[in-house]
What we know:
Blueprint: E1 29-33, E2 45-47, H1 50-57, H2 66-73, H3 85-94, E3 100-104, E4 111-124, E5 135-137, E6 149-154, E7 159-170, E8 175-178, E9 193-209, E10 219-232, E11 244-246, E12 257-260, E13 271-275, E14 278-286, E15 293-297, E16 310-314, E17 325-327, E18 339-343, E19 348-357, E20 360-363, E21 376-389, E22 395-403, H4 413-420, E23 424-428, E24 439-440, E25 447-448, E26 450-453, H5 461-465, E27 488-490, H6 497-510, E28 514-517, H7 525-532, E29 540-544, E30 547-551, E31 556-560, H8 563-576, H9 603-609, E32 614-620, E33 624-628, H10 642-658, H11 669-688, H12 697-700, E34 701-704, H13 712-716, E35 723-726, H14 744-747
Parallel strand pairs: 1-3, 1-27, 27-28, 28-29, 29-32
Antiparallel strand pairs: 2-3, 4-9, 4-24, 4-26, 5-8, 6-7, 6-9, 7-8, 9-23, 10-21, 10-25, 11-16, 12-15, 13-14, 13-16, 14-15, 17-20, 18-19, 18-21, 19-20, 21-22, 30-31, 32-33, 34-35
Amino acid sequence: MPEYLSPGVYIEEVDAGPRPIAGVSTSTAGMVGVTQRGPTTGKPKLVTNFLEFQTTFGGFLPEPDPTVRDAWADNPSEGGRWWLFPLAVKGFFDNGGRRLYVKRVVSAGALPASGTLGQGLISPIARDAPAGAESLELAHLIGFTGADTVSVIRGGDDVEISTATITGYDAATRRIRLGTPLAAEVKVSRGDYVQVGQRAGDATVEFAAASPGTWGRGIRVSLTPMVGATLQVLPGADEGELFVTRLAAPADEDSPTVQVAAIPEGLETPFWILIGERRFEVTAADRPADGPATLTLGDAEHAAWPAGLAVRRLRRANPAGATPRLRVAGVNRLYPDAVVQLDTGDRLTTLYVRSLSGDEVTFTSDTPADVFENDRLYLVEGRVDAGFDDPGGGSVTETFSNLRLSGDSPSSLAATLASRSQLVRATVRGRLDDLTLFPTPARGSALALEGGSDGYDALNVGDFVGADGGSGRRTGIVALEDIDEIAICAVPGVWSGTVESALITHCEQLKDRFAILDPQDGLDIEGIQAFREPFDTKYAALYYPWLVAVDPATNRFVEVPPSGHLAGIYARVDNERGVHKAPANVVIRGIRLTDGIAQDVTKRHQDLLNPKGINALRFFPGLGQRVWGARTLSSDTSWKYVNVRRLFLFIEESIDEGTQWVVFEPNDEPLWALVRQTVRNFLTTVWRSGALAGATADEAFFVTCDRSTMTDDDIANGRLICVIGVAPVFPAEFVIFRIQQKTRETLA
């Protein structure tokens, strides 16, 4: 109760009345099956179209080896044709399904493809160059010193094209100058690259496919160093002010002196200047009272420069010489243990960050003696490029940049791939931050993963049933429990009694979903009746026979289980008409236009099947191939129709989720009235949609929540009891027109 303790205006929010109940989705499906690839851990994965399914889980599966195929296909009690699962998923989306949660099934014998990187430093060629060229443009200069001896290697067969010593480099264009002209042309398209030193076989990084299966053999992955940030070195704190002047007279290339307009008073030699792109040490300076100053250069070799050329003083970053500390602009881009490369214009030096303080960076070793302002400091990180070519068509490529080469932060190589990659995982077994021994494949510039196993010979029905390891760690059918939105369940192509019993048990325990079962393929009328006998449940339906659809992988027609197509039909009817409409007398999409049903079912056949709850799939001339049944597998006649059972699941789940606010409210008359009105409003909406029978709302349902539904003992024990009665609409399964002969006189 609010308190009013001092004069003033008080604003209070008051409940306006009953809270609305939103109807839950009934068209979201969950399926369990074997796929080419995809996550095997975590919760079931949502896909909203077949292309998304292919991207995540791969394409169509080939028929397994005859030994494995026959062990499953010829087993009438515990068998299945699980390799047809992707075709069933396609059937789901072809028939109007929109949301499907998929849980991949793998056997204990399945293994991922893998490969290991050794040690060595390579840089791919970035631009073609002809034979005789004296420079090369590379993908990167990371790990180079500027005076390395390199081998130019031809991609594909790893034959050495040329050997040369680097005589200079341009970090901005990533171009190196060679002491020896190229002996042969180099090409980017061929995968040519430059190698520094020799490669070693010691393992540095092991890559593995993100999930088990032979699919991983199609993965190619490369790990290359990259510049994560380019930072400027700042001058030492006591280096004074910057000044810029100009040449007062043309400079002779043979003269050790140059004349400049002026230099600041008090500037003592030696100091350094920048003319053009070269730096020079000034060993002496003559400053007349008026007129230009004469500077003596420590290095007399220079170009002939015109008058007016800019001359800028260069301030040292380490005035005292070699030191482990430098001031750096943008130091927030660095972090302890970061690998950096210092570019002083004539040499590249690898350093390791020890600590950061303000704009000062402390390294684990000394810098070179001559470091100047505006020298570059390159943050070195890693980049992974992974690609997968699907034999069934299509490809997947991934790129992950700015991977830290040390530590175990979320930005490290292993952590980033584990959280973001759909293709690969990495295990670091050596040092990544030693750039001279950077992880490199034994041949070429990319690693092709090898090995891997689907483990189909070890697959068993227990893999489909699954195990409960807790939220996010469940497998098989049990994993569907992690997704509350699922309303339709199936394990397409598997007729194992153990699996289908587990699927039914799953639905009966959760009481918010409905199962679609597949019979064994090829059964005759007697066979399907025998197959149906063990089941008695109001939470599942059985459809017969199988369907015929094209397998895009082989371009041949194959028989496919009906559950995937029927789940899509359930979803389509729910979205177009509502869950109260029986999912029957609708055309089956995505099957062969003629003879799309594997076996003909006549009316006389269905006279035997329908009373036993076996829903027939039939062909009608002029009407196409249709679902011609809507019964559950229940012996209880109150629940013999699929739409009635699913309507009550919808109502029960909607009320359950929409009245959670009632818990722990004061259990008295105002709450009861609010509950009654909340439920009545929801059921009125359901009735108006045509889901309930009755000319008025009072004929369609009743809601009672008062002293007549609760005793004092119930109230004392915290129980609020609301009694709801609902009159569902039943499908017109038998349409009967009674016609009799009458004469005019009889009618009168």
